[in-house]
Amino acid sequence: MYTIYVMRKIFKNWYNFLTENKEQVVTFDFDDTLSLSNFETVPDQPDPDLEDWVHHGPNQETIDIFNDYKKKGYIIYVVTARYESREKESAQKAHQVDVKTFLNTHNLEVDGIFYTNGDYKAEKLLDISNKHGLKPQELTHYDDYDEDVQKAQAVGINAIEIPDPYREVLSEEEAFQRKVRLKHARLKYRLLGKGKNKHNTGKKMKKPSYKRSKSAPPGAGGS
Description:
Oligomer: single chain
Number of strands: 9
Largest sheet: 5 strands, parallel
Structural class: alpha/beta
């Protein structure tokens, strides 16, 4: 009986050691979570109808949350649906910013950046939790995109939705319209990135246009 008691005590102490020394990990989305951006008309462009993602600076409320985790010694990752191959292009555009430049500018030290290249983040978040020996619910993820939050929660991740940072300056109707518009824009980017490349003419790459069509083709609408 004494041997059983000692063994139970050893296993209990070992379990406590393992749980107390588990790595603490938190992840953050990038666009409209750490940074602020909007899909809108690009300023100072020859074409007044050209629309693109336009960077507006840091989302200070989320950055304060980020810094609190940093002070507590958490491992922090950025998990973004951006395409890694497009980051160089974002860095070269005056109205955009790439993830690495933004983090360096605002002194946000992370332990890694993961690009899902248009895919939802749930699978990558599970990979991160497994990498650190965590149960899915032990990983916290912050994101502004409700579908990413829902899909992450569906696999057990402790996903927290960041409120729309633009909502305070918009009416309820405008806020809803913006949400629908951003969803459409994000879906468009994801589909363009995943589809087959139809822009390779004469072995020379021609980039697809993200510009919105200004009018319907002749005969549309039954006229």
